[in-house]
């Protein structure tokens, strides 16, 4: 039932293992020029970390730190021990680079194989990887996991839809790795060929790399008659294989034998209680070549509370809720547009668009939300609409802890830029 | 000095090993539907192959056989034992597919690592693979060899020249895999950036996948101040790692512990003596998942005679001389355009273009060759030109064993199609 021993660990065993590996990781990190200097400067002594709670006293590592350390100031071992690097192009000038030793790669492939095994893939499966290869970790990362698990792995790469479909059919592919937008596109190519993708033996899709909604997942599952599982990874923590959904499809288990995960307030860096939305912070616990301590992922999620029915105690994180850089602070409270969107989209009366307006009345911040209502509801009488308005405001207050002013507006009445709705408008800096 | 024991084998040891592995390979191949049926039909009994010479009694396998066996009639083990496939798109409709077990992949990576070690790459090297990844074997094939050897491997993939150059410089890359035309293109990008590639720490380039001349090799070596080594491989025999130049840069050693190579007459299939140009035929000696017996590569080369000064006794093949499908038969003799080109291009008086015309006088075939002469030579007196004409004819006769009629023509006087010279014109079928 389990791929390896680590999946069966109890909470206590996980925490014991984490502490041991955290200590080892800190000692290893201290050998790198970057952490060596940082630890000296901040007075960090790896030997004085004696409990997992001590991790909070360690400094964070940011994307900017990685850029400033380019190309090799984070190496904890001689470069001759490294056998691969992945480079993220990034949107700014300086790339970030992650190095791996042979042992690091084996460990990464094992974690990835464990993810795939968890969702039901076996060595008898034929697995088509539709990810671009090369410097992007989705290609080689998933590929090596699939080979390690023993699947017949087809390194199809990205694009060339006709060939993808030919491979899927000719080799009776049962598992795929695909990005959601491409899966939707591919279904139109199937339609053009007059082939119903539900007739394929395809059972399982691994999906990551792009934010997408639960609704989109269910649509893909129906279109292809397959199960779709969410994957979370980032190149700084290897790539895919960091957190993965089990067959419950309710949150992604973080492999806590390999990563120490925290959720912190993106503003203060203070830890947040389980269930609260915040920034995911990750520490690698198994990497020897280039350990990274308390990496600020800028990704927003929360720990899910309670036990997963699958039996694994590795903590689950929620579907990603966007990036920290989208965060708004209103009346001292952190609010993320995704929180508002999720509530609005769960209400059948609400249409596709909304606009969040931040304003200042004297010294007090206010949040005003214009919400498009579906045509069929807008014809209702004023009283019904007033009730709806109150219900929306109340649901939002429960989520964001601030009461917004809700305005219901007609379908297609909100401004759009580039055909895409503008979601947030901050007017607090505008005049007195 | 050597990467592994197999490099040190004596001729006798190689042949003993080859026979043992050929027998094992035949027994293994017999388990596949394709060879099972073929062996029964042709009365091949693997147990009756008792000497290497017996290989000549085995049937050939052609590209068409692979197409007809699509997708899995060549599998000698259950598909669940396979962990990767590479698919060649080919130019025609049906692709060919090669399957690998985990053991097959390890073996392939070791052969590739041996090639790289032979030309001087070590685990201290930084190696940038500029090959496309995915289904094409040049990506993952070279990549896995480089990782196995322990080089710091950069999976750069194809294209994006500015990034390639940034990686080459930032990571002090010492070894690359690149196709010749791209290496030439990249040098112009370097020039545009005002960077002299000779100032990079680059030492070694592995080059394959495209036919190119010795002159082009020397030009690349000078441009980048690096050594360029030729690589030969084909996906049917895994991909790169089949034959590789040693530091002598004189012919490519075929790894005879892993492959049984023959040179045959492309018309009759009969073996040719060492030194004669013919079709390379390959048998895999180490593949368990999908052995291939006597594969007709359609590639033209010859065995080089004599000992290689490097000390390795694995036989060397010459630089590829084109494809069998270009073969002409004149007066019962097989002639390849590349043979003629090579002689012409070695003579300083000859320009860039030539035209081979095949004609029939009654029942007798004739070969006529129009040769463009460089401008500075064409101004010579008639007697000098007549001497040159005779010298060209004599040199060609020594190579192709037929005396051609040579006509010297002025620079730019030959017909071109699409800007490229038309090389062969067969008029033997025209009229009476
Ligand atoms: Zn679970
Ligand atoms: Zn040699």
TrEMBL record, chains A, B:
<keyword id="KW-0436">Ligase</keyword>
<comment type="similarity">
    <text>Belongs to the phenylacetyl-CoA ligase family.</text>
</comment>
<comment type="pathway">
    <text>Aromatic compound metabolism; phenylacetate degradation.</text>
</comment>
<dbReference type="InterPro" id="IPR000873">
    <property type="entry name" value="AMP-dep_synth/lig_dom"/>
</dbReference>
<dbReference type="InterPro" id="IPR011880">
    <property type="entry name" value="PA_CoA_ligase"/>
</dbReference>
<dbReference type="InterPro" id="IPR028154">
    <property type="entry name" value="AMP-dep_Lig_C"/>
</dbReference>
<feature type="domain" description="AMP-dependent ligase C-terminal">
    <location>
        <begin position="332"/>
        <end position="428"/>
    </location>
</feature>
<dbReference type="GO" id="GO:0000166">
    <property type="term" value="F:nucleotide binding"/>
</dbReference>
<comment type="function">
    <text>Catalyzes the activation of phenylacetic acid (PA) to phenylacetyl-CoA (PA-CoA).</text>
</comment>
<dbReference type="InterPro" id="IPR042099">
    <property type="entry name" value="ANL_N_sf"/>
</dbReference>
<dbReference type="Pfam" id="PF14535">
    <property type="entry name" value="AMP-binding_C_2"/>
</dbReference>
<protein>
    <recommendedName>
        <fullName>Phenylacetate-coenzyme A ligase</fullName>
        <ecNumber>6.2.1.30</ecNumber>
    </recommendedName>
</protein>
<comment type="subunit">
    <text>Monomer.</text>
</comment>
<dbReference type="Pfam" id="PF00501">
    <property type="entry name" value="AMP-binding"/>
</dbReference>
<dbReference type="GO" id="GO:0010124">
    <property type="term" value="P:phenylacetate catabolic process"/>
</dbReference>
<dbReference type="GO" id="GO:0047475">
    <property type="term" value="F:phenylacetate-CoA ligase activity"/>
</dbReference>
<keyword id="KW-0547">Nucleotide-binding</keyword>
<feature type="domain" description="AMP-dependent synthetase/ligase">
    <location>
        <begin position="77"/>
        <end position="283"/>
    </location>
</feature>
<dbReference type="InterPro" id="IPR045851">
    <property type="entry name" value="AMP-bd_C_sf"/>
</dbReference>
């Amino acid at each position: 039932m389990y791929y390896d021993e680590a999946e069966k660990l109890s909470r206590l065993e996980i925490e014991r293992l984490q502490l041991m590996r955290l200590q080892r990781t800190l000692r290893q990190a201290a050998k790198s020029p970057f952490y060596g200097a940082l630890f000296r400067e901040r007075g960090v002594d790896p030997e004085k970390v004696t409990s997992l709670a001590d991790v909070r006293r360690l400094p964070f590592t940011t994307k900017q730190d990685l850029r400033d350390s380019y190309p090799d100031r984070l190496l904890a071992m001689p470069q001759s021990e490294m056998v691969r690097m992945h480079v993220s192009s990034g949107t700014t000038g300086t790339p970030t680079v992650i190095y791996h030793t042979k042992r690091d790669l084996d460990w990464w492939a094992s974690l990835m194989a464990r993810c795939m095994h968890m969702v039901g893939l076996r060595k008898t499966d034929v697995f088509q990887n539709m990810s671009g290869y090369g410097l992007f970790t989705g290609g080689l990362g998933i590929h090596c996991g699939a080979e390690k698990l023993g699947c017949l792995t087809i390194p199809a790469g990205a694009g060339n839809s006709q060939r993808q479909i030919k491979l899927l059919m000719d080799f009776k592919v049962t598992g795929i790795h695909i990005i959601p937008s491409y899966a939707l596109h591919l279904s139109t190519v199937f339609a053009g060929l007059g082939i119903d993708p539900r007739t394929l033996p395809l059972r399982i899709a691994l999906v990551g790399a792009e934010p997408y909604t639960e609704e989109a997942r269910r649509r893909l599952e129906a279109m292809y008659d397959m199960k779709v599982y969410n994957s979370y990874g980032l190149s700084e923590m290897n790539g895919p294989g960091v957190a993965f959904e089990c067959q419950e499809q309710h949150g992604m288990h973080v492999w806590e034998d390999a990563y120490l995960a925290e959720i912190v307030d993106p503003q203060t860096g203070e830890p947040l209680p389980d269930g609260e939305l915040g920034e995911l912070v990750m520490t690698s616990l198994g990497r020897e070549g280039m350990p990274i301590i308390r990496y600020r992922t800028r990704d927003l999620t929360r720990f899910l509370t309670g036990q997963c029915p699958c039996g694994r105690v590795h903590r689950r994180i929620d579907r990603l809720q966007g990036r920290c850089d989208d965060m708004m602070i209103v009346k001292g409270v952190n609010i993320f547009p995704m929180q508002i969107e999720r509530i609005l989209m769960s209400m059948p009366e609400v249409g596709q668009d909304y606009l969040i307006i931040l304003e200042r009345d004297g010294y007090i911040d206010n949040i005003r939300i214009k919400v498009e209502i579906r045509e069929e509801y807008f014809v209702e009488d004023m009283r019904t609409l007033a009730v709806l308005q109150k219900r929306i405001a109340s649901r939002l207050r429960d989520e964001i802890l601030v009461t917004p002013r809700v305005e219901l507006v007609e379908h297609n009445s909100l401004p759009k830029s580039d055909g895409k709705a503008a979601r947030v408008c901050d007017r607090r800096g505008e005049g007195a």
